[in-house]
Structure formats: C-alpha cells, structure tokens
Write a structure and sequence with these properties.
Elements: E1 14-21, E2 29-35, H1 40-51, E3 59-63, E4 66-69, E5 81-82, H2 88-92, E6 97-102, E7 106-114, H3 126-129
Parallel strand pairs: 4-5
Antiparallel strand pairs: 1-2, 1-7, 3-4, 3-6, 6-7
C-alpha cells in the first residue's frame, strides 16, 4: 500500500514595512516585518502596537485602488471592503505603497519584500500584546526590530 506523505508548508516570506506619519515634523517612522499572508485586520493591530497607539479611532486602508476597514454597523460613511479575511499580499496586487487613514492621522507605508527571514531579535508576541498597552519603556522601536505574528 502506498502511503501519502504531506510536506510541511513553507513559512511565508516576510514583508518589511516602513510606516511614516504624514504632515508631521520631525518625521515619525517605524520599520517592522510581518508575514506576507497577514490579514489587514491583524496588520492594523500590529501597527497600533508598533506606533504605541491605543486603537481609539476608526481606520481605513487604501491599497491598490481598494478601501478596506471595519464597516460601520450604523451604515455611516463610505463603504469599505471588510479587512478581516483579506491578506496584505493579495490586497497589494503588486503595488509597493499604501496608506492607512485614521480620524486624526494619516500614514504612508512602503513595502519591501524579504526572501530571507530576519534573525528574531527581541520578539514581541502580538497575541498577548493585543490585549495590553505597550509599556512606556518599549515605545521607541529601532530599525531592525522584528515582530513575529502568530
């Protein structure tokens, strides 16, 4: 009898994201890596953690001509595509830049693809971090930090 062997799925490539707040001087930016198959909903939470924000505003991603976010349950505002299941790599459709807009701030994000996996320096486990605010001593992130998303 022939036995079928399933090969393990390869780990997704990492995307290196550079986020920069618009219309603010001096420039405020962060650089971090996420897996290419991260959903836009999870990416929003990662951005909140990386920037040290409290997730207190509505948000909307503008990517490759499409708008993604959490639809307003009361039907107010512009209609957006749901972000819960859309992955970043599919939403990008080959583009390298996109925007996230919130009530009080807009940020431009540039994407670089990385085939190699960065050595995991101090890893912040986002699963627990989603439920707790970032400690003050961890709010300044330097280039080279990597976040691992589960």
């Amino acid at each position: 009898m022939v036995e079928t062997v399933r090969l393990p799925k390869p780990e997704p490539d990492l995307l290196l994201l550079h986020i920069e707040l618009k219309w603010i001087t001096p420039t405020i930016w962060r650089r971090f890596a996420v897996p290419e198959n991260i959903t836009l909903g999870k990416l929003h939470h990662v951005i909140q953690i990386v920037m040290g924000w409290s997730d207190s505003h509505l948000h909307e991603f503008e990517i490759a001509g499409g708008n993604y976010g959490m639809p307003d349950p009361d039907g107010w505002g512009q209609t957006v595509n749901p972000e819960a299941r859309k992955t970043l790599i599919k939403a990008l459709s080959g583009k390298r830049t996109f925007i996230i807009s919130m009530t009080s701030v807009t940020a431009g994000i540039t994407v670089s693809r990385s085939k190699k996996h960065y050595p995991l320096l101090p890893v912040r486990r986002c699963r627990t971090a989603l439920r707790a605010p970032m400690p003050a001593h961890r709010r300044t992130w330097v280039e080279g930090r990597v976040m691992k998303i589960f």
